[in-house]
Amino acid sequence: MRSSKGFSVRTIVAIGIGAALFIVLARFGSIPTGIANTNLQTNYAILALFALLYGPWAGLLIGLIGHTLADLISYGAPWFSWVIASGIAGLLYGLFNRGARIEEGQFGIKEIIRFNIGQIIANAVSWFVAAPVLDILIYAEPGDKVFTQGLVAGGLNILVVAVLGTLLAAAYAKTRTKRGSLTREA
Amino acid sequence: MAVKLLAYSDIASPVHRLNGVTKLLCFIIGSVTGMVIYDTRCLLALLAVSLTAFYLSKVPFKQYSFVLYLILIFSLLNQLAIFLFAPEQGTLIYGTRHELLHIAGHYSLTAEQLFYQFNVMLKYAVVVPLALLFLLTTDPSEFASSLNRIGVSYKIAYAISLTMRYIPDVQQEFVNISTAAQARGIDLSRKEKPGRRLKNAVSILFPLVLSTLERIEKVSAALELRGFGRGRRRTWYKTRPLTTTDAAVLTAAVLLSAAAFTVTFWDGSRFYNIFV
């Protein structure tokens, strides 16, 4: 575990600009599914990618800062239970992918499976459990309603990260030079 | 794509003159209090206080009117969802049942439900003016220094100020990329089917992500060159000393919140029951 003093400059900047990207996509990048009030949130694919690239603590902070500011500037007040759930999601996306060497261009079948199992667990914990439970604790909202909302949001986020997150990570890995990819010419 | 976002503007008002630290702490204290308590009397009192502060800030209505509509729609949908999923939640909380009107099936309107949903609305209404006020009257640069002042590590405070700084840039980048993509026939708008839109989103997200990653490298190199993160502390361009007015406002906020907690939990429950 790294303390906040241990954050590298690159991680700090990644948190700052990653959160900005998260916010912009929260405003413009959501795709309506056709069911009222449920959108495919493309920004969760970005959260997963940044957690994969910059680690769980970056994921946690991008989730917290991004969701709080996105709520603040578009709704005027943060919905804290879901803000915390976003932070947990970012943290878990990162934790399940510790040691992934995407920087070195490695993102094959094995990494894709690991990334997706990780994101399914992360989304399940945050949206099926954390968000509704916090809704009940903080806002005393009815259980049926918040669990249904959590189930829908979590399911959609799993879908978005599985499709967009995997595609983005794989495409990013392709832009990196593979380790040991140079061969000596005779 | 001219989408309005809430932003700070410089107006001469007593609220603007308050220190950023004071406003941040008031916002935190106010939101926590508003989140925990369910006592109607306290919520109404808090609402009165936060609306008065809003009035004092002299922020023109036009600057936040569009957000008010969004909030109104959001909370209406939320209220409707609560009623659809749990029409008897109020009865459950307050322990009595006064049926006003039978609608259909197991849906009927009870006085308890109305009162409960009124409280839910009130809770949201208390936080909104505080959050809006904080956002509209605090200089973003002062925001970071305030966070650092109340104990958040300066690196994280700086990350938040970077976020505020880069939202317009990333937004511009997004608009440029999606316009270019549309020119090539990649449509993200309503006209496409959801599946197709998801696929098209990739072709816009990918250049956006790559350019963002590149920006991260550039900015972090620039920060590193200037020796960012070497020291244990840093100074801020926008810091002001706390004045007596700040101290008075903070004391009032703490006292008000303490009073609200005491009144709410006096009878051991976070709800205020008018039915017994």
Describe this structure in words.
The complex is a heterodimer of chains A (186) and B (276). Helix content of chain A is 72%, strand content 3%. Chain A is mainly alpha-helical and 186 residues long. Chain A has a single domain, classed as Arp2/3 complex 21 kDa subunit ARPC3, CATH 1.10.1760.20. Chain A has a two-stranded antiparallel sheet. In chain A, helix 3 runs antiparallel to helix 4 (80-96), helix 4 (80-96) runs antiparallel to helix 5 and helix 5 packs antiparallel against helix 6. The termini of chain A are far apart. The relative contact order of chain A is 0.13. With 276 residues, chain B is mainly alpha-helical. Chain B has 2 domains: 14-138 and 243-265, no CATH class; 148-225, no CATH class. Chain B is built from 10 helices and 2 strands; from the N terminus they run αααααββααααα. In chain B, helix 3 runs parallel beside helix 6 (111-137) and helix 8 packs across helix 9. The longest helix of chain B is centred in the C-terminal third of the chain and has 32 residues, at 194-225. The radius of gyration of chain B is 24 Å and the shape is flat. The mean pLDDT of chain B is 84. Chains A and B meet through helix 1, helix 2, helix 3 and helix 6 of A and helix 2, helix 4, helix 6, helix 8 and helix 9 of B.
